[in-house]
Amino acid sequence: MKGYKTVDAYINGSEQWGSALEFLRALLLDTELEEGVKWGAPIYMIKGKNVIGMAAFKQYVGLWFHHGALLKDKQKVLYNAQEGKTKGLRQWRFQSLEELIDAKEVIIDYVKEAIDNQKAGREVEMSKKTTTVALPELLITALTEDPSLKSSFDTLTPGKRKEYAEYIETAKREATKLSRLEKIKPMIKEGVGLNDKYK
């Protein structure tokens, strides 16, 4: 999706869902939420804190509740779009303007609850990323046998060390693991990350 700079541009850029987005926008602007654009899509905030976003896709138009995991969700309408990855974010999908109109009162209830949660300072606790990396046996052996390789590896960021560990670990065959190890040794010694060229 294009990186729109204004909500108007976002809505005008969606021929299929323009009227549905206008409907949602009117509901959200009828509250104390402040409108803005983040990541190229409309966002609604309280004192700069994300509360709700809206977005149009091919099959549906959706409301995103940034701390949706805290909502009671009595109607069981919220999705976790990335199960196992997303902790707080929840999405409510609508397939038509008619569906939105029928659900208007329920949408308002969910929006009010999200606003109340934000004002009360309720937020989903985000787990801290672990910086320790479990290294594959093959890599441990190579580092033990080559002190200069170990020295170079130890100076890499935790993220780069993790990339290398996963690169070897995800290979299914032992021969592939060995060939991957040989490929990354010079890269480690140069102090570069496995995916640096893509960043």
Automatic annotation (TrEMBL):
Domain named YdhG-like: residues: 17-115
InterPro entries reported for this sequence: YdeI_bac, YdhG-like
Name of the protein described by the UniProt record: YdeI/OmpD-associated family protein
